[in-house]
Each structure stands twice: as structure tokens, then as C-alpha cells.
Write a structure and sequence with these properties.
Order of helices and strands: HHHHHHHEEEE
Number of helices: 7
Shape: elongated
Largest sheet: 4 strands, antiparallel
Helix content: 55-70%
Low-confidence stretches: none
Mean pLDDT: 89
Distance between the termini: 57 Å
Length: 266
């Protein structure tokens, strides 16, 4: 088989792996939390899906360049590290360029170690498809097993992006709290207790909004209940389309959040 055809096999295997993995990782929380208006980063979900497909397609070409050495494997892993860091930079905004650079430096080696198995898997997939194409006997069975392996790896890998049970509950509670607050503003009735200390909600809490989950609970200047390290706390940022923002921290098992206005803070 010609080198060009081998590269094309690697490219399309990478496209398939990138498509399935990215589709699951980008949309799994939307499936798990229907009706929740999720916040989208600057590089949106569809754009991330396309970028991941192209990224893995290029890695697929790289890992098939030389099957007798690890150059393609290491090169593919490096490519994934750099592209991932660049996308993180775009999502963080130019004001956090230094922070993004520091994260890149301190996580460079761990991510290389993490991405090398992905590159190895893509090389194995490509070689199996190549053998199936060149060997007529048993080709259908081999291709079926390879496709099943791609689907399994994509599902398992993409599932790691799913929010924890605590985070999902916090998002549901925050969404209901926001809806109750909007209803109170519209009907000019008393705000829910958790929204009473949130400055400006009674005048700006209306219209469309999104919810953004984070584990950086210490960034919100509120007094919250003490908890041990095993408790998964949630910071939910609620962003209205009119520019108004407030944040709430949820500390299980309590479902009563601590909320403040962050419109002028962030």
C-alpha cells in the first residue's frame, strides 16, 4: 500500500475518533441536564467538535509517518498539547495569557504522558485498518473490532467530562433559584432568601441567562459552611444577557447557596 493511502487511513481514523470523543465530551452534560441553559466558552461546542476532529486527523497522519519509531507518536502527543493549550488560551481570554502560559509550563510533561497513549491507540487503529484493507480474509471482522474499540474509547474518554452528581444537583438548584428570582421580579414579590443579599437582582434579574459550573469556590467572597475535602462544592456563575452576573456557592449536603453580585468583580 502506498504511503499516501496509509496517511489517509490515519487521517480518517483520527477524524472518526475526534468526532465521537468530542461529540460525547461536549454534549454529555446537555444530555444529562436537559432544560439547563449552559454557558458556552468563546470557542463554542460545535467549533470544539470541528477543531478536535481536525486535530486528531492530523495526529492520525503523524503517527503513520514512521511505524518503526516513536517520532510520530511523540510528535502527535506534542501537537495535542500545543493545540489544547492554544484553545485554552482562546477560551480564557487575552487578560489571562500569563496564567495560561504558567498552566502550560507546569502541566506540559503530565499532558505528554497522558496523550502518548492516545497517539499509540490511533497508530494501532490505523495499522489494523491498513491490514484489513490489504488482507481480504477476515477484513470485515477486523474492521468491526476496530470501530468497536474506537466507540468504546470515545465513550469512556468523553464520559470523564460529565459533571458529578453534586455538580448536576447544584446546577439544577441554581437554575430553579434563578427562575424563581425572575418570577419574583416580574411579579414584584419578595425574592427567594438566597437572592436577598444579591445586590441589583431586583432591577437586573430578567431576561435570558446561562449557568456556568466551576470548582473554584474560593474565588467567591462569601462565608460558606465548613466541609471536609471529600465534599464536592460547586460555584455556579449566572450570566444574564443584559450583562448582569451573580455567583452562588453550594456546599453539600446543604442545598441553600451563598450568593453575591459579581457584575463589577469579574
Amino acid at each position: 500500500m502506498s504511503d499516501t493511502k496509509i496517511r489517509m487511513i490515519g487521517f480518517f481514523c483520527g477524524l472518526l475518533l475526534g468526532l465521537l470523543y468530542s461529540y460525547i465530551s461536549q454534549f454529555i452534560n446537555i444530555w444529562m441536564l436537559p432544560g439547563i441553559p449552559h454557558f458556552d466558552l468563546p470557542v463554542g461546542r460545535v467549533a470544539m467538535l470541528v477543531c478536535t476532529m481536525l486535530e486528531m486527523g492530523i495526529v492520525g497522519i503523524m503517527v503513520t509517518l514512521n511505524k518503526e519509531s516513536l517520532v510520530g507518536i511523540v510528535g502527535g502527543a506534542l501537537f495535542m498539547v500545543f493545540t489544547g493549550s492554544y484553545i485554552n488560551y482562546l477560551n480564557s481570554g487575552s487578560t489571562k495569557a500569563v496564567e495560561t502560559l504558567l498552566v502550560f509550563i507546569f502541566t506540559f510533561l503530565p499532558r505528554i504522558v497522558l496523550f502518548i497513549p492516545s497517539a499509540l491507540f490511533l497508530r494501532w487503529v490505523s495499522s489494523q485498518i491498513e491490514q484489513a484493507v490489504t488482507e481480504a480474509a477476515g477484513s470485515i471482522g477486523r474492521i468491526t473490532r476496530v470501530v468497536a474499540a474506537i466507540v468504546l474509547v470515545s465513550v469512556v474518554g468523553g464520559s470523564f467530562s460529565m459533571f458529578s452528581a453534586e455538580a448536576r444537583l447544584a446546577l439544577q438548584d441554581a437554575n430553579q433559584l434563578t427562575l424563581d428570582g425572575i418570577s419574583s421580579v416580574a411579579q414584584q414579590t419578595r425574592l427567594p432568601a438566597a437572592l436577598t443579599p444579591v445586590e441589583g437582582f431586583s432591577t437586573h434579574g430578567y431576561g435570558a441567562y446561562t449557568l456556568d459550573w466551576s470548582d473554584k469556590v474560593d474565588s467567591l467572597n462569601v462565608i460558606r459552611p465548613e466541609s471536609d475535602s471529600s465534599v464536592i462544592e460547586s460555584l455556579i456563575i449566572i450570566r444574564f444577557d443584559n450583562g448582569y452576573k451573580f455567583g452562588c456557592v453550594y456546599t453539600p449536603p446543604s442545598r441553600s447557596p451563598k450568593c453575591i453580585n459579581i457584575t463589577l468583580v469579574q
